[in-house]
Amino acid sequence: LAKTTQPISMDSYEGQEVNITCSHNNIATNDYITWYQQFPSQGPRFIIQGYKTKVTNEVASLFIPADRKSSTLSLPRVSLSDTAVYYCLVGDVGGGSASKIIFGSGTRLSIRP
Amino acid sequence: DAGITQSPRHKVTETGTPVTLRCHQTENHRYMYWYRQDPGHGLRLIHYSYGVKDTDKGEVSDGYSVSRSKTEDFLLTLESATSSQTSVYFCAISESHRVDSGYTFGSGTRLTVV
Predict the structure, then answer these.
(1) CB neighbours (10 Å) of residue B17?
(2) To pair with B90 at 20 to 30 A between CA atoms, which of A60, B11, B37, B46?
């Protein structure tokens, strides 16, 4: 299993860029990296996924170095509404079972005015 | 969330009583999952299903059973509820078990066992 390690919490201010790094030293060849966002009293919501290099969508960017032992979720110009818990997941692309996908405790991001 | 509904949203029950939580989807996805979320533990997989009548255990399956008699419904049963099962329960669906297919989560059921 590729266990992930993230900071427990982070604080930032509106308008800043926020980078959350996830460590996954034991990532396997078939593993994909996925990030989810969870607001209070809601289920997690898919943000972005990637396998290597850089992925960007309308919400965030995901940077993955060549060794894939870590990944960084980048949120540009955050607002108060970005206050949430962010989960990094690493799991088997195919052939594995759902039990191999570990959510972890996530990073609680707090954005201040 | 669109396409996935959990019921009830809140429930208080007494220790030793049976409890069933329901997850209903309208997306016709093959895979369905039950997670529990507790402070300091993130989301932990209880059971999952990869088709009608096909289920398997997750990392915290003790004390829980599941059933899936129709594609759209996945039931989680606590045969004899205990206080340690007080938690928020989330159902999720996906087209495949692959992490890159993305999971869609329901809004959760807050269960309190007194």
Answers:
(1) 11
(2) A60
Token output for A40? 């209070």
**Nearest CA distance, A46 vs chain B (angstrom):** 6
Longest dimension (CA), chain B: 39
- Which residues sit opposite A25 in a β-bridge? none
**Closest among A76, A72, A27, A39 to A53, alpha carbons compared:** A72
Task: Give the chain A residue nearest B104 (alpha carbons).
Answer: A45
Distance between CA atoms of residues A109 and A92, nearest Å: 27
| Cβ atoms within 10 Å of A80's Cβ, excluding its own | 11
From first to last of the 114 residues of chain B, give the pLDDT tens digit: 569 999 999 999 999 999 999 999 999 999 999 999 998 778 899 999 999 999 999 889 999 999 999 999 999 999 999 999 999 999 999 887 666 678 899 999 999 999
Lookup result for tokens 């939580």: B21
Min Cα distance B80 → chain A (Å) is 24
Q: Tokens 């669906």 belong to which residue?
A: B93
- Count of alpha carbons within 13 Å of A42, Cβ hemisphere only? 15
